# Entry
Amino acid sequence: MKSTEIHRVPYGSKNITFALEYSPRKTLAIEVHPDRSIIVKAPTDAVIESIEAKVIHRAAWIAKQQRQFTKYAPSLPAPECVAGEGYRYLGRQYRLKLIENQCENIRLWQGRLEVYTVTHLDNRERVENMISNWFRDRATLIFSERYQCCTKLVAAYCIEHYHGFELRTMSKRWGSCTPSGKIFLNPLLVSAPKDCIDYVIIHELCHLRFPNHSKSFYKLLARILPDWQERKDRLNALVELRLKTSTRVKYPCQA
# Structure
C-alpha cells in the first residue's frame, strides 16, 4: 500500500516541491502534471537522500515540463448555455440557438448549434444536459473512428492496443494513459480538428512504449507524427478546456 509525503529540495534560489509516493516498485519515476505539480514515485526501500539527489539531477527537465504546461489552453468556467454562446466542434465555431419545439433534438446548421427543446428556454440545466450528452455522443463516434486509424498507424512501430478507450472529463488534460495501458480521452477534445485529435491519441499510444516524457518518447512520437508540435500548439490555441464535474464512460473499441 502506497503512502504520500510532501518534500522540498533547494535548487538555485528556489525550492522544488514534490509529492513523494512510496509503493512496491523497482524504479523511481518523476512525473510533472498539467497543473505543474510534481509527483515522485519511489520504491518502498528508497532512502530520501537518494530520492532528493535524483530530483535535483532532473531539475532542468522538471522546469522544462512545467514551462510547456503553461502553454496549455486555460481552464474556463462551464458554459452558461445561453443563446448566442459559442461552441466549437471539430475545429469550427458554432453559435447556440435555442428553439422551443415538440420534439427534442440538436443539430448543426449554418454556423449554429440549434437546440430544440420542449421545456422552457430558460431551463439552463436541461439545455446543458442536452448539449453535454450530444457532445459525448459525438465524441464517442469521432474518437472511435480516429482510434481505429491511429492504432493502425502505430502498429507499424510495434505498438499494439486493442482495448479501446474511455471518456473522462478532465480539467487539465486532453488524454491520459495508465501504466496498465488504459487510455482515457477528454470528450471536450471533440471540439478540436481531427488531426489534433489524432495527435492526442497517438501521444497516449506512444506511452505504451515509454510511460514518461523522456527523449525516447519524443523521438518515437516524432517518427510517427513529424508535425506533432505544430498540432499540439494548434490544439491549445484553438480549444479551451472547460471545468465540469469529472465523469467516466467506458467505450470499448476493437482494432
Notes: The longest strand covers residues 14-23. Residues 74-78, 242-255 have pLDDT under 50 and may be disordered. The radius of gyration is 21 Å.
